Amino acid sequence: MDVLISALSSLVQGFASLTWQTAIMVLLGCVLLYLGIARKFEPLLLVPIGFGVILGNLPLAGLSAYDEGGIINLLYTSGILTELFPCLLFLGLGAMIDFGPMLGNPRVLIFGAAGQFGIFLTLLLALQLGFARQEAVSIAIIGACDGPTAIYVTTKYARELLPAVSIAAYSYMSLVPIIQPPIMRALTTKKERAILMEPGEKKVSQRVKILFPLVTGIVTILIAPMGAPLMGMLMLGNFMRESGVLKRLVDVSESTLTNIVTLFLGLCIGASMLGGNFLRWQTILVFILGLIAIALDTVTGVLLGKLMRVITKGKINPLIGAAGTSAFPMSARVVQKEGQKANPRSFLLFHAIGANAGGQIGSVMAAAVMLAIMSGMGIKPLP
Amino acid sequence: MKDWAFGLTMTILGMGVTFITLYLLTLLIRLLIKLFPRKEEEESEG
Q1: What gap in Å lies between CA A287 and CA A268, rounded to an integer?
Q2: What average pLDDT does range A306-314 have in this prediction?
Q3: Is residue A172, in this structure, part of any structural domain at all?
Q4: What is the ipTM of this complex?
Q5: Pick the residue with more confidence: A171 or A239?
Q6: Spatial CA neighbour of A294 closest among A141, A191, A125
Q7: Residue A178 belongs to domain spanning
Q8: Contacts of A153 in chain B (CB under 8 A)
Q9: Using an 8 Å Cβ cutoff, are A103 and A133 in contact?
Q10: Chain A residue closest to B25 (CA)?
């Protein structure tokens, strides 16, 4: 009888260990699954994250990212803490991106810098709100509008914020079509939005396309070596793509490898969102600051667009500036849509894609520079 | 160093270096395009 009772008690241990935080987190996991499946918000990421949240929070399952010896802990320690997953995602991203539109019109590359200004303004704001320097940097990097970069930086400096930062970064990327248009309309007149830009793609030679990732990789890594893993992988992926002789590797990098890493990354992030470290007021602040960062990126991008319009005597549509964020290719699509609303003859996509590709380089560069400055100031990354 | 000084240093250096690097890259792209212009056969291939 005693054996039977102890066997039965072991079966109800899981229920007995449930807490209100567990219940909320499981519910949150279900909401993420709903958003991914029914609303199609970044399903490739939100579904693994949502399921990871549920698995990680179930008591006694040993499936949280912090349960030593568990399978998700194995993925977390070998893929997130080593920064392997963000770097592999950048390899895939490099293999996917066509820098051609940017190379055909190099001046749009500068929008990629303006699109990062929100990172630094948000850093100032986060510091004023009392976040530690390492935390403020990790929150501000949401403004890079780039999930892997946000994860890379946060893993180095503020791991306790990793779940909130990564969810905010990826959620806002998918919300770019909602966040950016009101700001773009508020900062520009209809006349400015209706400006027609030179149509058609200015093509460059294949040699330029091949040499660009090589030269960019060397120059940017020499300037900010701290960003070498991200920039190196991004440029390697693009070099493989443009070399034209590695089709099999490019196919694997841009599809299979990216998909597998996205699955593992989502699962790890979800399983690291435990009630204790996620249900805090800081999480709400991280989300608010992340939103501000992306909004400020758009503001500074459009303002630079307006300046460029004046400098080029009306040849540049200021909306292009909003594509300087690295939400690729969502921002470019938003620019195209807003341009066509103001002028049905307008076709800004080609130029916007160029600025958007510049934003991809700009966001990694901004992160690398931040890391370099932190290192120079003696602020060491976490071991 | 106080927090605001840290933040301002990061902002000025961060944005400055990012802008300069991307500007440098635009110059390098222009140089590459000059050194390796599109050939006629590439033009005909589209």
Answers
A1: 20
A2: 92
A3: yes
A4: 0.90
A5: A239
A6: A141
A7: 63-376
A8: none
A9: no
A10: A216
d(CA A310, CA A128): 35
8 Å CB contact of A133 and B6: yes
Q: Which of A67, A122, A88 is nearest to A297 (CA)?
A: A122
Place of tokens 């890259």: B25
Does any domain span residue A3? no
Domain count, chain A: 1
Residue A382 in any domain: the answer is no
pLDDT digits (tens, 9 = 90+) for A374-383: 888 888 888 8
Alpha-helical (H) ranges within A200-274 are: 206-223, 228-243, 247-251, 258-272
Q: Give pTM, 2 decimals.
A: 0.91
Instruction: Say yes or no to pLDDT of A363 above 70.
Output: yes
Around Cβ A171, how many Cβ atoms within 10 Å?
21
Instruction: Read off the tokens for A180.
Output: 């950016």
For A131, name the nearest residue in chain B, comparing CA atoms only: B3
What CA–CA distance (Å, rounded) separates A95 from B4? 40
Sketch the domain layout of chain B as residue ranges: 3-35
pLDDT averaged over chain A? 92
